Every structure is written in C-alpha cells, then in structure tokens.
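Appendix B. Raw example, untouched.
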Amino acid sequence: MRDPLSVLTDAFTAFVFGKVETTRLPVRTSTGQAQAVYLPTAAPGLGDSGVIIGREVYSGKGYIYDPFQLYGQQLPAPHWLVLGESGNGKSALEKTYVLRQLRFRDRQVVVLDAQGEDGVGEWNLIAQELGITPIRLDPMVANDSGIRLNPLDPSITTTGQLALLRTIIEVAMGHGLDERSGFALKVAHAYVTEHTTHRQPILTDIVERLRHPEAESAEAMNVDIDDVRAWGLDVALVLDRLVDGDLRGMFDGPTTVGIDLDAPLIVFDLSHIDRNSIAMPILMAIVGVWLEHTWIRPDRKKRIFLVEEAWHIINSPFVAQLFQRLLKFGRRLGLSFVAVVHHLSDVVDGAAAKEAAAILKMASTRTIYAQKADEARNTGRVLGLPRWAVEIIPTLTPGIAVWDVNGNVQVVKHLITERERPLVYTDRAMTESSDPSVDPELEWETEQRAILVEQQLNGTSQSTVA
C-alpha cells in the first residue's frame, strides 16, 4: 500500500502538470505475435548470390553461400574446411552443394571419393544421375581394364614430373630424399625424358635407368658409376612398388585415353584403396599434380576440388607442400578447394603441423558439425572461434553446423529438396543418421526453401572470380 505522502505528491503533480502516466490494461499474447513487436537481432548474411545452403537457425533467414562470389570481397581465399564426426551431415552437405553448383553452366567439380561400400564409391549415385562414369582406381583390376594416370604424362611439365616423383618416394619412405638419391633420380628422369620420343615415358623407364645408370651422368659429377647405381637403389625399390608391387597397374603406363576432363563432374573413386595404407597419400599426390597440369586452365570456369578423407593430404608434409602450391596457383584461376576431415586433432598434432597450419590458414570458410566437448575446444582454439560457438558445437544435432566465413559466424541448418534426397542419402548414410531436413514443424518452410532452390538452380551464375 502506498504511503499518504506519495499519494499527495502524485495528486499535486497531476494538478500542476496534468496526467503524466496512463494506466493500461495488461495484454496477453503469444510469442509468435510478440516477436513482431520485440524484433530479434542476428548477424548479417552473406548476400543473395550463390547457392542456398539452408537457413540460419536463430533468425530463420535463408543462408546463401558462394566462394566465387565472395572471393575478393568478404573472402581472402575461396577454400573451405568441413569438420565433424561421422553421421552429422557432412556427406549430405557436400553432395547437395555440388549438385546445386553444377546447375550453373560455368562450374566444374572434381571429387576424390575415398569412401564407399558394395564395390562402388559414395558418389556413384550422383555420377550415374549425371551420366558420368567415375574414374575408378583399383590395383586389383588395373592390369586388365582399369584406369591409369601417368606421372610422366607429357601434359605435366618436366619440373612437375620430377617434383611428383620426389613426393611419391618421400611419402613412401617417410623422410626426405638425401642429395645423392635426389641426384640419381634427377639424372634418370632427365635421360628418360630426353631419349623417349616415340611414346609416353613411363615409370618402368625410370626404374630401369636407376638400376642401370648411364656412364655420362657419373662422369659429369666425377663420381664412379657404381656409386650412382647405389644412390638410386632405394629410389628404384620404391618406384618398383608402383610398377610391380601392390599399386601396380594404376600409374605404370600411359594415361588412359578417354578421360573426359571437360565433364561437369569428375569423380575419382578411391574406395578400393586401403585408407590407412601408405597408398592413399601417394594416390592423393599423383592425382593432385596430374589435375594441376591437365585440368586447371585459364578458361574462366569456376572449379571445385573436393577431397574426402583429406587428412591424407594435410597430415603428410610432402603431399601438403604440393597441395599448398596447387591452392596458391589455382586461386588465381578460380579454384575452390574443399577439404573434409573428421577431427582437426588428426592433423594439427601430426608430422605435418607446419604444413597443416598453412593449409588451414588458406581456408577462409570453416564448417563445423557436432564434436565432443574436448575436440570442440581444441577446434575453437585452432580456428579462433568465438566462445559461444565452441560451447554449442557439442550440442548440435545432425544437419546443423557452425559456419565461420572469414569471421562471420552463424549457426546454419542444412535443407535438402525432395529431388536431392534419394541421391544424397545412400543406404549407409541412412543408417548413420536421420535426414536433417525432416522436421514436422518445418515441413512448410522446407517446401518453400525447396521452391527457392529450384528457381535458383535453374538460372545461371553471374558471379565472377575477383
């Protein structure tokens, strides 16, 4: 109960100045109606040019992303890192992103498909839908009808060939080449490229020349011919694995005729290769350099190079160095590199920590799906994420991720159209996690987003590379 003095003071004030406060009846309303009065605030989006990813969770706005449109304006580099444990939606995001980008006529995509089941890679369904035959690298069938990629293909410069040969050997040996072994390899490569003119040089030629070096190469350095042979012995043994060992048939002959480098989608199916063997980083190095010299061209196309199980690249110092050059070179010609890994700790504490840091620095876009709390804290520390983002990463449900686009951090729900769903969700993916776009409360919104996606995908890109 108010005291008499307050009542008297209010009465006197009202008499002198008039009524200064009106009495209002309480209003009861729903949160849906009240949000029109108390408008929420959210971080600004990335513009309206590009492909639709889904919607921003807190504001409900459509989330649109395109590295080619943002490059030079909001992005210092068009490269992208995708992180998260299995079953949270990384695969679905990659596939829908590629499908939507391919609807633009000036886009081209290469996928290194390192996962699969039932004898085919995970991207096999999408390749079939687009009328594409995957390039299946399989040492079990390579000698009969498999695909070959020649590290000594004439389309690769002699400098590139020698760098690739060194990388193959260093990855297999687990350490760098010493000066003597490097000299033996260099003279063998120089002799083969100079004297093989009637056909493509192949690895067998290099191995043969390492075993039987020319006297001129020894004389030029004033050393004994037996010394040159001894220096090249370990190198010859490593390359022999690609010629007559467990990796034979894939790289020991001329490049297979008929590989269509102008196709909108090129899928390298690596699912038959043991992902935990030394063969995988060797394959990554060979395919990466081969693409650098045969696929990336100054033709105004925007290219996307998507690598699953990318820790095979980032965790090997020698392969990482090759890809660093590819990323720097490709950026000028419109290349967006997409690396998909499960755990950042797999690479930042590995043998290639320095190279990994350089590649991660090039990735101006980072998408992080659910991780355990300890892993999330480590990821946040390495990537410089804000505290609130680190705290919610362990609570994310499948299909929802934290997106950091050069400091613009938002939480995004990935949405999938009915047309995309059967291509995106393979049997294995369906058993791992539920469809992140199926939510009864969002069915109407999903349908509206799907309409927008279809309208956009039927258009053409107006974006350019800065």
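End of appendix B.
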